[in-house]
Design a protein that fits this description.
Elements: H1 3-9, H2 33-53, H3 56-77, H4 80-96, H5 101-119, H6 125-143, H7 148-153, H8 158-163, E1 164-167, H9 170-179, E2 181-186, H10 193-203, E3 210-214, H11 221-229, E4 232-235, H12 242-257, E5 262-263, H13 287-297, E6 304-313, H14 319-328, H15 345-355, E7 362-366, E8 383-384, E9 390-391, E10 398-399, E11 402-403, H16 407-428, E12 430-431, H17 433-447, H18 454-457, E13 464-467, H19 468-487, E14 492-493, H20 495-499, H21 502-513, E15 522-525, E16 528-531, H22 534-541, H23 557-564
Parallel strand pairs: 1-7, 2-5, 2-6, 3-4, 3-5, 12-14
Antiparallel strand pairs: 6-7, 8-9, 10-11, 13-16, 15-16
Length: about 575
């Protein structure tokens, strides 16, 4: 009997979770990744083979389904990848019926290893340290070249730092990161999200994270170099094989088990509409529960903390493409957009140059941390019951006091967390001044086009104007209502909205839109403001759909209700 056969017939093997020495005292966990990478891949193969290789029917189905899915995909791609891989999958399909069980297991091992090597990231400490020094200077050179000589002689990069604001319990998160594993679950608006968040984490003294990035983003050689060397792992959303998804989840689970702080976007993809996500896909984020349970079965009591966050921009680089996709109903068909503004160097340069004129480009707000089961955490990182008493999260994954891994049970906990996050996102969303001005203008457009559906209204380019005086007045009234919501803990105001007069808020929004997007959002024609592009206006105002009725005065309720109804089509 072969070793492989004995392995498959033996009781389930528990893969130990090891924590080898770090690169240096106090260095982030991820600094050790490259030395651990081969072992992580080995454990990944072992875990997936153990899961699929015991049952002959399950093994045959997994290989057959994967091969058929890949043949269908590659046959339509007709690219360099297809030239290399298509024949391999076709040969596997032809041979599967004649292969012995051991041969199929060997084929599974090779397939999983190939998938794992393609997925697994890399982390080069030298690149990370160089990037820390280089990125702020590069951003300053692009956004404010005249200020570069002054910035060089200063401590830090204050011009760049002023553009991105961090809010929330950051000191507390630093403490939790020392004793447990952070799993960040932010909203997702732009391909810039992971870059902005990574920069801010480093600036605020929080540890670097590993995160999944669409494989299409690695097609840009410059972006690919940094992403590949700074913790990103590749997620090929074109691959529909169930086996690939199992490998991806197992990789994510192993990373959390080993203490690597992680980042997942529960929305799955960027919000096409610009609205705060309400329908979440917690597939990979759900591996936090499994990782926590697995570690307990190995005797490793490492806490896992879920950290909701909202990423809020005054301008969104890809707004034009995203809202057009949403209006066309193409979000599902074009799950991966390869030709948006993010892929254009010229548009990225234009975007960053525009940021220099803004007082606040982005606000990233962290919510209060939770345990993997949605319970709040006290100051010492202990889980709290609704009564306020401390509870042991291990009881959620134990049977008669013994921790266990149960996929169905863990999926239920993940669904419950997914039901909680939209409400957290809503109250932690930071309203930017561009969004409030867009909302007031769009509400006026709705009021001026009664009886017209959404798509008819979007064609009214340059037809509807609002006096600037009235716009300023309504922005001031809406801002006051937002302040009341903030006092009740239901909303957050960005720094410009909180500290500027209504006239200045309007002026800054009109200026921010001017000259960045290829289409004019709104044009000031004294004494009016003319709505030129209802689509972009819709995108920016959609961030406030959930607040529409609360921000409306008596004469604006009807239009506000119609805007609030947009959530049904999101």
């Amino acid at each position: 009997m072969s070793l492989l056969t004995r392995f498959l017939q033996s009781p389930p093997v528990r893969v130990p979770t090891l924590f080898p020495p770090r690169v240096g005292p106090g260095d982030p966990r991820i600094y050790s990744f490259n030395s651990e990478r081969p072992r992580i891949i080995d454990d990944l193969v072992l875990r997936v083979v153990e899961s699929h290789g015991r049952d002959e029917e399950r093994l045959l189905f997994a290989l057959n389904e994967a091969a058929n899915a890949e043949v269908r995909r590659l046959a339509t791609q007709r690219d360099a990848e297809a030239e290399v891989s298509l024949d391999h999958w076709r040969r596997l399909l032809r041979r599967l019926g004649k292969m012995s069980h051991v041969e199929r297991v060997e084929a599974l091992k090779k397939t999983v290893r190939h998938m794992g090597e393609d997925i697994a990231g890399n982390f080069d400490v030298r690149v990370f340290r160089a990037t820390r020094r280089m990125v702020p200077g590069v951003l300053t050179a692009i956004m404010a070249p005249s200020e570069l000589p002054h910035e060089i002689v200063r401590t830090g990069w204050p011009r760049v730092d002023s553009l991105v604001t961090a809010e929330g319990p950051i000191t507390r998160l630093r403490e939790l990161a020392r004793t447990g594993t952070l799993v960040l679950v932010p909203t997702h608006a732009s391909n810039l999200d992971s870059i902005a968040l990574g920069y801010l984490l480093d600036r605020e003294g929080l540890p670097p994270v590993v995160y999944g990035a669409g494989k299409n983003l690695f097609s840009n050689p410059i972006i690919s170099f940094f992403m590949h060397n700074l913790g990103a792992y590749r997620v090929d959303r074109r691959v529909r094989a169930r086996l690939y998804k199992d490998v991806l989840k197992a990789y994510s689970c192993l990373m959390i088990e080993r203490g690597y702080h992680s980042l997942f976007f529960p929305g799955g993809t960027r919000s096409r509409s610009g609205m705060v996500e309400t329908h979440l896909k917690l597939g990979l984020a759900g591996t936090a529960v499994e990782a926590f349970a697995r570690n307990l079965t190995y005797g490793v009591k490492r806490p896992v903390y879920m950290v909701p966050a909202t990423i809020n921009y005054a301008l969104c680089l890809e707004a034009e493409t995203l809202i057009d996709d949403w209006l066309k109903g193409a979000g599902a068909a074009r799950y991966i957009i390869e030709d948006d503004e993010f892929s254009s160097i010229d548009r990225m340069v234009a975007f960053t140059k525009k940021l220099v004129s803004l007082r606040s480009a982005a606000v990233i707000r962290f919510g209060e941390p939770l345990d993997p089961f949605g319970n709040p955490i006290d100051e010492e990182g202990r889980s709290l019951a609704p009564s306020g008493k401390t509870i042991d999260p291990a009881t959620y994954v134990s049977r008669r006091g013994i921790p266990s891994v149960d996929a169905a049970r863990d999926a239920g906990y993940t669904r419950e967390l997914g039901e909680m996050l939209p409400a957290i996102y809503s109250r932690e969303t930071v309203v930017m001044w561009t969004q409030l001005v867009a909302h007031v203008l769009y509400r006026h457009l709705v009021a001026e086009s009664p009886g017209i559906d959404l798509f008819g209204r979007q064609r009214r380019r340059g037809e509807v104007a609002m006096s600037r005086e009235r716009l300023v007045a309504e922005v001031g009234e809406a801002r006051d209502r937002l302040r009341a919501l903030e006092s009740a803990g239901l909303a957050r105001l960005g720094p410009v909205l909180r500290n500027s007069a209504p006239d200045e808020i309007v002026a800054q929004a009109l200026s921010a839109w001017r000259g960045y997007h290829t289409k004019v959002v709104a044009n000031e024609v004294d004494p009016d403001v003319v709505i030129e592009d209802p689509n972009l206006l819709l995108y920016y105002q959609n961030r406030l759909v959930g607040f529409a009725e609360a921000l409306a005065g008596p004469d604006q309720v009807a239009a506000a209700r119609e805007i609030a109804g947009l959530t049904a089509s999101a």
